[in-house]
Amino acid sequence: MKVRVLGCSGGIGARARTTSFLVDSDILLDAGTGVEDLTVEELAAIDHVFLTHSHLDHICALPLLVDSVGGLRKTPVTVHALPETIEALRTHIFNWVIWPDFTEIPHYDRPWMKFAPLSIDQTVQVGTRSVRSLAATHTVPALAFHVHSRNGSFVFSGDTGPNDEFWRQVNGVEDLRFLIIETAFANRDQDLATTARHLYPIQLGEELAKLRREPQVLITHLKPSDRLTIEREIEAWAGRFSPRVLERGEVLEV
């Protein structure tokens, strides 16, 4: 299983791209601005999109993705998400005001996109890989994901603040190779981070102390304007795991 980092930033600018990971060629975890770097052929190969939550930096490329390649595909793109996320997309994006509803185009019986509701701790089998939804804590209903193949697993936290249930689930993953976890704000902005339910470096260290496995810890979702400060503070506060900041364009082999 190969995981291509299309975007891992908390914002845009200076070639930064927001959150999106391509698993092999057919599974997309979140649909941030990183999707725009794929070719039309690569876009058309995506069969499943798993969304952590409804915020714009994680879903903004989805409408354009479906619009760009829907006519090239024989089956609809399946969007897996919490019911609350699906309702947000129906109400605010695919509403015929902001964008057409591709669950109705070109016909109800032959849509370019379909929704598949997820609940926490639900597993979806996609070929030889499985995607399990984990608990996350954010300002809107949100998920993390555990992706498993025959050779190992990785976990992607999505956007989350402290969450003991998340760590209980992560510690149950025996073959965990990578933990991709967000740290959006610098320590000086910890009040904002707490309100927005994101992590900051001191809190990241506190959360990683709950980890009982030994994966490589990769940090995502840094605000571009504060990236250097956050990187220095992660190094100082993150503890024994020596996390490193994930880079756009990396390919992780699991």
UniProtKB/TrEMBL annotation:
Leader sequence segment: none
Q: Which InterPro entries match?
A: Metallo-B-lactamas, Pdiesterase2, RibonucZ/Hydroxyglut_hydro
Domain Metallo-beta-lactamase, by residue range, is 17-188
Q: Name one GO biological process term.
A: negative regulation of glucose mediated signaling pathway
Source organism's superkingdom?
Bacteria
Which GO MF terms are attached to this record? 3',5'-cyclic-AMP phosphodiesterase activity; 3',5'-cyclic-GMP phosphodiesterase activity
Q: Which Pfam families match?
A: Lactamase_B_2
Write the protein's name.
3',5'-cyclic-nucleotide phosphodiesterase
